[in-house]
Specification:
The chain has 3 domains: 182 residues, ACT domain (Alpha-Beta Plaits, 2-Layer Sandwich), CATH 3.30.70; 97 residues, Periplasmic binding protein-like II (D-Maltodextrin-Binding Protein, domain 2); 77 residues, 3-Layer(aba) Sandwich (D-Maltodextrin-Binding Protein, domain 2). It has 13 helices and 15 strands. The strands form 2 sheets. Strands 1, 2, 3, 4, 5, 11, 12, 13, 14 and 15 form a 10-stranded mixed β-sheet that branches. Strand 1, helix 5 and strand 2 form a beta-alpha-beta unit. Helix 3 crosses helix 12 and helix 4 packs across helix 13. The longest helix has 36 residues. It starts with a helix and ends with a strand. The relative contact order is 0.15.
Length: 378
């Protein structure tokens, strides 16, 4: 009996495959027409109408499954349409211009703005990205953006994410406010050392200076030394400078190993962070969109309607195109239930399907912002 039923299912599947092929041929024609006019691929009104119509044709216990099936079918159809030809949108024109005008090689030298002071992790990230750099230091993130806007430098280096502390949301807000772009990123392993003036031993230390995040990342080490008082400063490099300028040999700092050379200190203990897999991701930003050869990661933000399945529908679009999401983060905006989403995914805007997806999203979703296509270094 089962074999007969399976044979019948095979027959039905063949019919479905034939109809699917026929449907996709029509989808292709529609996609080509939409591409010519620059019209968005998504038509939410029509999708809802189709869902209502097909669900009225099935038994009640199959309505939910029918809805899910056709939503998936819509996602596949839209993914197919985005591979047909380049959509003529403002974003697609900006991306094409950036590709054409960006040099073949990322600059070896540049004047770069960083937050902090000499010895900060942003300095280390900058030195890894640029072979020769003239670094301008600023007290806060705003200073970095202002320096670029005023033409003092072309690039800025900022932390965007830490593997233990999460995203630096203030940086995202400033990128959107100033309409800057990410042109390269680098993942920097965070290693903390306990540094002090020469002649100081670990048993002498009674006060430790550091940034609050570094302090939390070295919690286990500090628990083993309850005699040490912790004092918070702006960043780990400031902590090192504070110790170097002090005459008190009972003070130390938690800073990067490189700060020992910068400020003439010695290491009392190295690798004192709790987690060996502690990384901070830094972004290199520019006022101008630059897309270098080899760029294979894309960042963007967008808002989604407060509707059941809206995120799932969007994720299906990425899945259908074989795009791997490496980051998905939400944050509330406006009224309760409304969210803005931050996406990072592996993709190259030189690929028609990717460029078309971005173009289509740029005209169909509110709050869409293309943050850049770039290479991530390590």
């Amino acid at each position: 009996m089962i074999e007969k039923l399976r044979a019948r299912i095979d027959e039905i599947d063949n019919e479905i495959a034939d109809l699917f092929n026929e449907r996709m041929n029509v989808v292709k024609e529609i996609g080509e027409e939409k591409a010519k006019s620059g019209k968005a691929v998504v038509d939410h009104g029509r999708e809802k109408s189709v869902i209502n119509r097909v669900c009225s044709r099935v038994d009640e216990d199959k309505i939910v499954f029918t809805k899910q099936t056709f939503e998936t079918l819509f996602a596949v159809s839209k993914a197919y349409q985005t591979q047909l030809s380049v959509m003529g949108t403002v974003l697609s024109a900006e991306i094409s211009k950036a590709i054409e005008e960006t040099p073949e090689v990322f600059p070896v030298s540049a004047t770069v703005a960083c937050q902090g002071i000499e010895g900060a992790y942003s300095m280390l990230a900058c030195e890894k990205l640029f072979g020769v750099s003239d670094i301008l230091y600023f007290k806060d993130f705003n200073g970095v953006f202002s320096a670029i806007e005023k033409g003092l430098c072309s690039y800025g280096i900022l932390p965007i994410e830490n593997s233990t502390a999460g995203s630096v949301r203030g940086v995202y807000d400033l990128i959107l406010k100033h309409k800057f772009y990410i042109v390269r990123t680098i993942r920097l392993r965070v290693k903390h050392s306990l540094l002090a003036k020469k002649g100081t031993s670990l048993s002498d230390v009674r006060v430790v200076y550091s940034h609050e995040q570094a302090i939390s990342q070295c919690d286990e080490f500090l628990k083993r030394h309850p005699e040490i008082e912790v004092r918070v400063v702006e960043n780990t490099a400031v902590a090192a400078r504070t110790v170097s300028e002090s005459e008190d040999k009972t003070v130390a700092c938690i800073s990067s190993p490189e700060c020992a050379d910068v400020y003439g200190l010695k290491s009392l203990a190295s690798g004192i962070q709790d987690n060996e897999n502690n990384f901070t991701r830094f972004i290199c930003i520019s006022r101008k969109m630059e897309i270098y050869p080899g760029a294979d990661k894309i960042s963007l933000t967008l808002n989604l309607p407060h509707e059941t399945g809206s995120l799932n529908k969007l994720l299906s679009r990425f899945s259908s195109l074989g795009l791997n999401l490496t980051k998905l983060e939400s944050r509330p905006i406006g009224e309760v239930g409304e969210y803005s989403f931050f996406f990072d995914f592996d993709g190259d805007v030189r690929r028609f399907a990717v460029s078309n997806l971005l173009s289509e999203l740029s005209v169909s979703l509110e709050g869409f912002n293309f943050l850049g296509c770039y290479k991530e270094m390590s």
